[in-house]
Design a protein that fits this description.
Elements lengths: L1 E2 L2 E4 L2 E4 L5 E5 L6 E6 L3 H18 L4 H15 L3 H12 L3 H25 L3 E4 L2 E7 L2 E5 L5 H15 L2 E5 L6 H13 L6 E3 L4 H10 L5 E5 L2 H13 L3 E5 L5 E4 L5 H13 L11 E5 L3 H13 L19 H16 L3 E4 L16 E4 L6 H4 L6 E7 L2 H9 L3 E2 L2 E4 L3 H10 L6 E2 L13 E2 L2 E2 L12 E7 L1
Bound molecules: nicotinamide-adenine-dinucleotide.
Nicotinamide-adenine-dinucleotide binds next to α7 and α8.
């Protein structure tokens, strides 16, 4: 049990101005494993004032020194990795080994990477008679989701702090505990007061108060399309810069010459990682119609290898979903798939051997048509839709037939052919022939998957203003 009774702003733990609390539940046992205060707009106001005051000095700290602070922050988090991984496995349901590597070690590494990016960033450029200078945007409001809780926080605060901005962060109410531990680490290293501020609470109250606050210059939001729309509208009123990282419905195009025995398992693994609670997951698998049944059989074989169970059991690959609401939402989509005529090929319900916790069986639908709800809407659970296509142009058409454009995959026997198709996909990322995630590459969406980019050196630019000085 990890309980915080305060927010962290102005360099100190501060009593909440409201009396409410939020219980954090274990997704595997449904027991209470943590608690945070339910913040109020008053708490937000105090935190923004602290961030504004700190901006005056932090923005003038030389980049090399800001980089040193990030290195110290990463070092202070390292001994906390096992505890944070365990907390996130409770909160989100992620299997502990994956949680340790992906949920915690990776973001800690990313803090250090941002230190390197700012050290080597070119912050001034001469263009004709102008000196063009990159300056920090100001106070950034960061609002994050629960699926990769520390990672999403780091994607925002590390480049923001590196760029010279100060931050007011509201972590997800379902998974806020790693943000509390981040505050502890920042406090331990003596990060200057007001540079990193955290207010716990609900999106509609604390989140919206951050977005609307006149002292906030920019909002960096990751979450659902519906909440992103609201954030963009409220931020628009104050003409604030927004970076929005929203949902996805990514397609994996398996071309007819692909090695199916490699490509299909890779596609299943990608869709199911973190029990499908991954924004970039390849939830639509597009296969040539003539090889549809073969692909479905290979997918079922791979799925059977992904053991569903307790996130703390070493044999587990897929844990429960993060909440009862998430479980019910996913089960609702499975019902919708059945009623719209998709063929249920595997899974499709709650596992009878796991009565407690928010478990849903990993599920495959075959013969899915592009217009079906399960082919269009983000389910955010372990549900794969296999869609047949007729020829390469048809595959590209179906892949792009989405309001989203976050990620995708292509697999072909030849790299050139895969690359040709990758260039035709309207998405922010595409992996070809099983290429791995690259922590230097910009990540973000086309279309309604968002605005702006995170991760890698490009992420820094989100947090800069350009000033032109004519001389
Ligand atoms: P969510 O939109 O419900 O909540 C995200 C955050 O926004 C939470 O902190 C929440 O409290 C806050 N929020 C909610 N309403 C708000 C409002 N009106 N004003 C301000 N803040 C508000 O999303 P979620 O369920 O936590 O996360 C799942 C979603 O996040 C999925 O759609 C997923 O695709 C998306 N996501 C996207 C990326 C990406 O990089 N594109 C990464 C991870 C998750």
């Amino acid at each position: 049990m990890l309980a915080y009774d305060s927010h962290y702003y102005g360099g100190a733990w501060q009593a909440s101005r409201g009396a409410g609390v939020i219980d954090v539940l274990s997704s595997a046992t449904e027991a209470v494993v943590g608690r945070v205060p339910r913040g109020t707009p008053d708490d937000v106001d105090q935190a923004v004032r602290a961030a504004r005051a700190a901006f005056e000095t932090w923005s003038q700290v030389p980049p090399e020194q800001r980089a040193n602070w990030l290195d110290k922050l990463a070092a202070a988090l390292k001994p906390r990795v096992p505890q944070i991984a365990e907390l996130i496995s409770h909160e989100v349901g992620t299997a502990l080994s994956y949680s340790t590597k992906v949920q915690v070690e990776f973001p800690v590494t990313m803090i250090g990477m941002n230190a390197r990016f700012i050290r080597s960033a070119a912050l001034e450029e001469e263009l004709g008679t102008s000196l063009v200078v990159k300056e920090p945007v100001g106070v950034v409001g960061c609002i994050t989701p629960w699926n990769y809780p520390l990672h999403q926080v780091v994607c925002k605060i590390a480049p923001a702090l590196a760029a010279g901005c100060t931050v007011v962060l509201k972590p997800a109410e379902l998974a806020p505990l790693s943000a509390g531990m981040l505050a502890e680490a920042a406090h331990e290293i003596g990060l200057p007061a007001g540079v990193l501020n955290i207010v716990f609470g609900e999106g509609k109250v604390v989140g919206e108060a951050i977005v609307a606050h006149r002292g906030v210059d920019m909002v960096s939001f990751t979450g659902s399309l519906a909440a992103g729309r609201r954030v963009a509208a409220v931020a628009g009123d104050g003409i604030k810069r927004v970076c929005l990282e929203l949902g996805g419905k990514s397609a994996f195009v398996v071309l007819d010459d692909a090695p199916f025995e490699k490509a299909i398992p890779a596609g299943v693994n990608n869709c199911m990682q973190n029990s499908g609670q991954t924004c970039s997951a390849w939830t639509r698998m597009l296969v040539p119609r003539a090889r549809h049944d073969e692909a479905v059989e290979l997918a079922k074989t791979q799925l059977a290898k992904l053991t569903l169970g307790d996130p703390f059991d070493g044999a587990t690959r897929l844990g429960p979903l993060a909440s009862a609401a998430q479980r019910d939402r996913v089960l609702g989509y499975i019902d919708r798939g059945k009623s719209e005529g998709a063929a249920l090929a595997a899974g499709g319900g709650r596992p009878s051997n796991l009565p407690n916790g928010y478990y849903v069986e990993p599920t495959i639908f075959a013969n899915v048509e592009p217009g079906m709800t399960i082919a269009q809407e983000e389910i955010f659970g372990p549900v794969l839709s296999v869609l047949p296509y007729d020829g390469e142009d048809d595959a590209v058409r179906i892949a792009n037939d989405s309001i989203y454009g976050l990620a995708g995959g292509v697999w072909s026997a030849t790299k050139e052919r895969a690359l040709d198709v990758a260039r035709r996909l309207r998405t922010g990322q595409v992996d070809i022939n099983g290429a791995r995630f690259n922590a230097l590459a910009p990540f973000g969406g086309y279309k309604q998957s968002g605005v702006g980019r995170e991760i890698g050196p490009h992420a820094l630019d989100e947090f800069f203003q350009l000033k032109a000085i004519q001389q």
